[in-house]
Specification:
It is a single chain. The protein is an alpha+beta fold and about 140 residues long. It is about 25% helix and about 25% strand. The chain is built from four helices and five strands; from the N terminus they run E-H-H-E-E-E-H-E-H. Strand 3 (about 55-65) and strand 4 (about 70-75) form a beta hairpin. The longest helix has 12 residues, at about 85-95. It is globular, with a radius of gyration of 15 Å.
Length: about 140
């Protein structure tokens, strides 16, 4: 049985290993230890899914708990996907910040997943990855 809990002190090693075992590792700095350390340090809501002691899912968010929750990383071990773990992690994230709007940017492979579980897709999101592009 999968157990869910808040783990704001998740180890970098476990986090990195899960990113690699999920499709999210393709788009995260898995070889930059210091960056991963900071990602965990500044994420203020980390909910995990464990099968016994094994980390099989994580939802890492930045939130003020009342207005906005940005779900930055939603990762589920590929061997555990299609079991409702991602949906449960999203639900538990929302329950921790019930008044806040939950926002996420979808990984390309997951764009069709989120509408299926009841999330609304918007076209008015903007990204700035490089300050030199700001005019």
């Amino acid at each position: 049985m999968i157990q869910y809990q808040i783990e704001n002190e998740l180890s970098v090693e476990e986090f990195r290993d899960l990113l690699i075992r999920s499709t999210l590792g393709e788009r995260r700095p898995i070889n930059d230890h210091e960056r991963l350390v900071k990602m965990l340090a500044y994420g203020n809501l980390v909910i995990t899914a464990r099968d016994g002691d094994k980390l099989v899912g994580v939802a890492r968010s930045l939130t003020d708990f009342v207005y906005c929750t940005y779900l930055s990383d939603l990762a589920v071990d590929e061997a555990y996907q299609h079991q409702g773990i991602g949906k449960a992690l999203i639900r538990r994230t929302k329950e921790e910040s019930i008044q806040a709007t939950l926002i996420l940017l979808s990984a390309p492979k997951a764009v069709n997943y989120y509408p299926k579980i009841g999330m609304t897709q918007f076209d008015d999101c903007f990204l700035l990855r490089d300050i030199s592009n700001l005019r």
